[in-house]
């Protein structure tokens, strides 16, 4: 068997043999047998196990890797299109050395096991460069690690290609025409909001504009922009970078993510002084972003005068075209989805039967479902008055706001995704 190329020339060992993970899976062999292998030194080194996990994750295009110590084992799962799949369960004895390898790569404190830590490292797999974002949290039986895989030098998609409905796209394009203000792309983790915010910047780029970004880490290269990457030693943060950027008088500022009050306040300040500021933020719906920003400590009059709009999005799996067939949804599933559909319309419910192309899942690829608020004058008043989210929702609906459920239901009715996928993503 040919040896794989070294994965990380700076940090990794030169060559490591491939590890047959299935043969050391505690769910395939008795724990005693594995423990015996481990004690007699016949278990592959943790370094080569970790390498094998990275090889496999990058090969199938995983978006995240989870190392979870649970009940006498270290379970490793890979995230793919929003679904976690178990890769292997290792004997618990290797947990510490695996965590230690991950910490070494991300230059984190080896001896800190009681506090959450965050770090990142890079590497090359399958001929592609990756950034790995590592997060560690202490759990009952050790530490749990999650790694986000970010492929470098990804092509930036066009906004039109991401799957936004026509009405959502028109609203977003409308927002992007404003010369100043704060536009937020929000959603849960892994919802494609970063992809969207870059597509948005790409859509408004012209040679006359000064565009500066600040990211942690830089995920997409923009040939026309100046990109600031936060240093891994945290010697400066988003807010520090932003204050410096403001002195350089940009037209458009892209902030990777608003994670804390300080960044939120400086972002609002930047929008208030006449810049167009785009950023991403974690959220569970579009309207809820307003009270969350207020809770971060941004004054209502700042929010009211700077917010241009909020995009909330999630990703939903598309039915595999190779094995798509008509389907009759269960009554309880229909009851969930029908309130979001136009009455009397003709609906085609489909599902994927599962075939070789889609690995038996019935799905291939994902598309965006979204809801978009553009902040009207009346909406600004509501923000100023600290109005409830119910009042804000009513005002948004009066201005044609459509909830993400309507968008998703329309995609079900078009046969693009299934009722059960709707329920999995939106409940
Ligand atoms: Zn299929």
Report what the structure shows:
- By secondary structure, the chain is an alpha/beta fold.
- Helices cover 32% and strands 26% of the residues.
- It has 14 helices and 15 strands.
- It has helices spanning 31-39, 46-59, 95-105, 166-176, 193-204, 238-246, 261-272, 289-295, 300-306, 331-337, 377-384, 389-398, 404-413, 419-426; strands at residues 64-70, 73-80, 83-91, 117-125, 128-139, 142-151, 181-187, 211-215, 226-229, 252-255, 276-282, 307-319, 324-326, 350-352, 363-374.
- Strands 9-8-10-11-7-12-15 form a seven-stranded mixed β-sheet, with helices on both faces.
- It is globular.
- Residues 1-14 have low confidence and may be disordered.
- Bound molecules: zinc ion.
Tally of individual helices = 14
**CATH third-tier fold name of the largest domain:** Rossmann fold
Spans of at least 5 consecutive residues with low confidence: 1-14
Terminal CA distance: 46 Å
Beta percentage is 25-35%
In total, the number of domains comes to 2
In the CATH hierarchy, what is the class of the largest domain? Alpha Beta
Note the topology.
Layout lengths: L30 H9 L6 H14 L4 E7 L2 E8 L2 E9 L3 H11 L11 E9 L2 E12 L2 E10 L14 H11 L4 E7 L5 H12 L6 E5 L10 E4 L8 H9 L5 E4 L5 H12 L3 E7 L6 H7 L4 H7 E13 L4 E3 L4 H7 L12 E3 L10 E12 L2 H8 L4 H10 L5 H10 L5 H8 L1
Parallel strand pairs: 7-11, 7-12, 8-9, 8-10, 10-11
Antiparallel strand pairs: 1-2, 1-6, 2-3, 4-5, 5-6, 12-15, 13-14
Helix pairs in contact: 2-3, 6-7, 7-9, 9-11, 10-14, 11-12
The structure holds zinc ion.
């Amino acid at each position: 068997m040919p040896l794989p190329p070294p994965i990380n020339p700076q940090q990794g060992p030169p060559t490591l043999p491939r590890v047959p993970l299935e043969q050391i899976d505690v769910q395939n062999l008795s724990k005693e047998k594995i423990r015996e292998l481990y004690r007699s030194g016949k278990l592959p080194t943790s370094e080569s196990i970790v390498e094998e996990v990275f090889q496999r994750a990058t090969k199938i295009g995983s978006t995240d890797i989870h190392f979870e110590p649970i009940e006498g084992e270290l379970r490793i799962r890979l995230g793919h299109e929003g679904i976690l799949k178990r890769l292997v369960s290792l004997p618990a004895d290797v947990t510490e050395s695996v965590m230690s390898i991950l910490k070494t790569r991300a230059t984190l404190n080896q001896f800190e096991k009681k506090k959450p830590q965050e770090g990142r490292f890079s590497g090359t797999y399958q001929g592609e460069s990756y950034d790995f974002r590592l997060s560690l949290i202490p759990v009952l039986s050790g530490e749990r690690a999650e790694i986000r895989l970010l492929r470098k030098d990804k092509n930036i998609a066009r906004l039109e290609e991401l799957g936004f409905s026509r009405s959502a796209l028109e609203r977003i394009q409308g927002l992007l025409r404003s010369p100043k203000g704060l536009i937020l792309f929000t959603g849960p983790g892994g919802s494609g909001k970063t992809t969207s915010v870059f597509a948005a910047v790409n859509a408004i780029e012209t040679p006359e504009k000064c565009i500066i970004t600040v990211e942690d880490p830089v995920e997409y290269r923009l040939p026309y922009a100046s990109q600031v990457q936060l240093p891994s030693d945290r010697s400066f943060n988003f807010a520090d970078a932003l204050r410096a950027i403001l002195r350089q008088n940009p037209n458009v500022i892209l902030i990777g993510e608003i994670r804390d009050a300080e960044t939120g306040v400086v972002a609002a300040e930047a929008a208030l002084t006449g810049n167009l500021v785009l950023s991403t933020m974690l959220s569970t719906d579009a309207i809820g972003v307003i009270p969350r920003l207020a809770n971060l400590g941004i004054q209502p009059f700042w929010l009211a005068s700077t917010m241009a709009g909020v995009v909330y999005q999630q990703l939903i799996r598309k039915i595999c075209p190779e094995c798509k067939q008509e389907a009759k949804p269960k009554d309880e599933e229909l009851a969930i989805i029908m309130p979001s559909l136009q009455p009397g319309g003709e609906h085609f419910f489909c599902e994927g039967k599962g075939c070789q192309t889609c690995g038996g899942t019935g799905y291939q690829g994902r598309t965006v479902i979204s809801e978009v608020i553009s902040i009207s004058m009346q909406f600004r008043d509501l923000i100023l008055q600290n109005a409830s989210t119910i009042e804000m929702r009513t005002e948004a609906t009066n201005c044609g706001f459509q909830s993400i459920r309507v968008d998703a239901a329309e995609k079900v009715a078009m046969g693009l995704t299934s009722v059960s996928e709707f329920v999995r993503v939106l409940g």
